[in-house]
Design a protein that fits this description.
The structure holds two protein chains of two kinds.
Chain A: H1 2-11, E1 20-21, E2 28-41, E3 58-75, E4 81-93, H2 95-98, H3 101-104, H4 106-111, H5 117-123, E5 125-138, E6 141-148, E7 184-196, E8 199-209, H6 245-250, E9 252-256, E10 263-272, E11 275-285, E12 290-293, E13 301-302, H7 305-317, H8 322-327, E14 332-337, E15 340-352, E16 357-371, E17 375-376, H9 377-385, E18 388-389, H10 397-401, E19 413-414, E20 422-439, E21 442-458, E22 467-471, E23 477-479, E24 483-492, E25 500-509, E26 514-525, E27 528-538, E28 553-561
Parallel strand pairs in A: 9-14, 13-18
Antiparallel strand pairs in A: 1-2, 2-3, 2-28, 3-4, 4-5, 5-6, 6-7, 7-8, 8-10, 10-11, 11-15, 12-14, 15-16, 16-20, 17-19, 20-21, 21-24, 22-23, 24-25, 25-26, 26-27, 27-28
Chain B: H1 2-15, E1 30-31, H2 45-53, E2 58-59, E3 84-86, E4 92-94, H3 122-136, E5 140-150, E6 153-166, E7 175-183, E8 191-196, E9 205-210, E10 215-218, E11 251-266, E12 271-275, E13 281-282, H4 285-288, E14 311-325, E15 335-340, E16 346-352, E17 358-371, E18 377-388, E19 393-406
Parallel strand pairs in B: 12-17
Antiparallel strand pairs in B: 1-2, 3-4, 5-6, 5-19, 6-7, 7-8, 8-9, 9-10, 11-14, 12-13, 13-19, 14-15, 15-16, 16-17, 17-18, 18-19
Classes of the chains: A mainly beta, B mainly beta.
Chain lengths: 562, 429
Amino acid sequence: MTLQIVLLGCLLPSVCEALLSDKKNGTWNLIGKIKAQATFRTIDTPDNNPIPIEAGDLINQRTLLLIEFRHDLGQILAQPEIDYYLQLRAFYDSVWDIGPDVFSDDDTRRQYLFDNRDQINDLKWDVDLFLAFIDITYGPLFTRSGRQIISWGEMSTKRILDGTNPLDTTASLAVDLLERMVPLAMVRTTLTFDNVGPFSSVGVDGYYVPGSIENKNGEELIDGSAVYPPIGRNTVEELQNPFSLSSLMQIVDQVPDDIDSDRYGVKLNMMLGFLELNLAYYRAYSDVPVPFLDIDAFQPIYLTWPHIGRILGTLITDPSNFWNAFLGDQKLRVVLTYDTVDVYGGSFNYYVAPIDTVLRGEMALYKDVPKIKPGSIADLVTELGGKVYLPGGNLTLGDLLSGVDLGGLADMTLPFSSGTIATFDVLKYGIGIDKNIVTPLNRKKEFMLIFEYVGSKIFAYEENSIIYPWQGPNGETLYEPEYTHDFIFIARTDYFKGQLVPQFTTFYEVVPRALVLIPAVTVFKGPWQFECTYMHTFSKSYEQEGFLASRNELTIGFAYNF
Amino acid sequence: MKSTAKLLSFLVFMMMPVHSVHADVLPGDLINESNVQKIEGLVPDFVLEWVKKGDLTMKIGELAYEPADFLPPEFKVKSNVGRYKVVENNVLKDSKTGELSPNPRTVKGWPFPVIDANDPTAPLQFLHNFNYKEYARFPLTTRDFWLVINRKGLEDKYNIRIQKTLFPEGYEYEQGEVSVFDAPFQVANIANMSCNFMDPVRTGIRYVYAPQLRRVKRLSYRLAGSEETLGTDFAPDDCWAGGPKTAFDEGSYKMLREQVALVPYLAGSPGGAVINENGEIDTGFAKAGNRAYVGYETDGWEGAPWHITNVIWAKRPVYVFEGRSENKNYRYGPFECWWEKGTFTHVYKRDTDINGTLWKGVYYVHRVMESGDGGFRDVDFIGPIVVDMKSDRATTIVANCMEGLYYTRNYSKVNLKHFTRSGFVTFTK
């Protein structure tokens, strides 16, 4: 990579300016950036991580190209004003070809039961029109049609009212901030009024994402990638136990949910003196998929005595093939279920002039959010056992095992649930202040300080009723708490005329007392940009952000802007 | 005895150092390090230093016209004499109506067409004149270049679109501004919107669109006016030869002197303005000519690459005053401001650091504009050219370089909704 950078440095212009532009009228320009970045894990993963990653391992090496074309067509006739915007994105993550063996070597990956080279080859790179929209402004009416991003709300890090566009979580720090929100194809309209009653301006903002066109709710994650949380390690050895998680996962066929519902939202914006108020409603898809066993898709099994004989024989002689003997070619279909969620909320910001401080806040009620209930072998036996008919056809396996003590198996929590999807109403709220201050640490630039508190409450909560989609460091099941409380602090300044930009971000989560530190520095020199970000988490438990304790990582990157 | 005295006088005369001859220049002089003494006292110390170092060669010229004759008609009349005064918090007061910080829609011409240098508020009168003259051109749209230039040449070239307006009667705020960076990528799509009152003590609103957050964020209304912007050498308060602009009440000023100085004018005859078919006045070089050339792009220029090269320096009367901010966090120490008499345009600004040491030298190249049919005339400026003497780098803001559209109070050309929080989404990406 160093050689590539040196060569690039010799070939590329040293002036930071638009690649091409309309020098006469300034109505269009072509700009972009190319960025090469590498992320290293700085901590060994726990034993229950799907793949073993050691401190120092490269986990992402992403090369990104963003090219942006803006064209202002001006006014067509007297009205309206029309312009369009295109942003092309291309990326390639070479860790899947040149990284450590757990990523690049298929034989090594198969030891951990990941045999997905086709998926890797499909997802490790992409070229797409990331953003593409046309704007039409006609007096107070503004419409934007195409792939775009809408970001409502006030918090800097945690999302409360901001839930229209999904997040790209496929590569942790390796995903550039500009591509972190996944654009959706939609039509957006804003209607602005001046001087309405006591308000200096009132705006109505609405959008519509047609489900028939837009089927995305995030980027697809490569199985066995570095961002996989600790959910247990599947190994060839564990397959000898037919009731181990490894064995159970082999009979599961996880399929993505259909994303075909319309999404839409409306927001009322009001300015009252220094106070900005927003009231919003929108329908979006839930963030976290619920792995849900599709009972209906399970084809009934009619056991015969020879079949039972083969199953028992395999159990004794070759336990790793037990499920094949039992189910044949059939797999359990587990749908990674997303459901539509209605969100009602509001936000405000207020400039407190006497202390030169911005105060911000927001709140949102998420209705019927699907959550992961702990699944169990007993549920499985009850629901699937009813479709497994014993010889004679009158009695099912479920009937037979009803009331039978399953021993230690009964306590085993499955990574998918069945029956009905549990939904909960969740209230999220946050408040923040922004303050610029002068410190002795920088005599030429202010420090921008951001303090935020973000909390949440799950209604109709029952103890140990909702699990996280990952495990504790020792394989223990982790349960979502009723309340969460996060404190966030961000400090940022710059030195040497903006050429050195340090930033420090920290989160403190009251439960489970997790402290996340993210120091970062960016250096600009002409068109060149160097970035270095480190993330370190202190936590003894893996609830909430605590699981990041197994994710300490360092990212360095070079970019060339034009 | 008489002859002895003559001899002594002659000897004394011969012993006088050559450079003690009164500094003066003549049209046609080319001032460089060999004859820099000629401009002593006619320019601020930083300009002398530039010339001594070979960074700047000055072509002395004579204007074939009186710039003040090219002011718009309303700025030639002196009907406002005695009508306005500067009161507490540096606020302008209309003595006739008692109104404080009168809306520019109601102020015709200079608030202070005649300035008495002995009036303690004289420096503030220059600054108010500057503001109200600027408002008179609103609504306007410009497409500018911000050029960051080091010794080796151009380092960064930012493209920025700016739209400014006054709000018609009935609106809460009095002035609005939207600016959007178009290039290069690292600053592209950063957009700012602010709405203000004329009264410096009244707080307005300020928002920024941050592309990396994909979010419009509320900002502190008061700009840190002495802090450099986006990696340039330019601080918002360098946009004029004055102190805090958005915290106008925090500036305190003292008149120093009236003198003759060399004032940079864009070479050539008045011109560089066209009135297009929509009645808009375009002063951008793309349409109207009168382009300013910068050192790095000028063949044969041997000075620093950041100076404007097609300039003549003409002797003109100026006032010099000193100012400072009362805000202890202001990054500039005392600053010196040079303003041309008659046109009330700024010429030089000398920024010091908080210890009073010279930090930046700033100058503004004057431009006298006239449309072909004479229907539009004005005296404007190009710049600022902000030279950071400590880091040996400069930022040259070539205002109205590409397009400078003045809508001549035709508000139908401006979408006022863009200056609202809701309408600002137009500029987000």
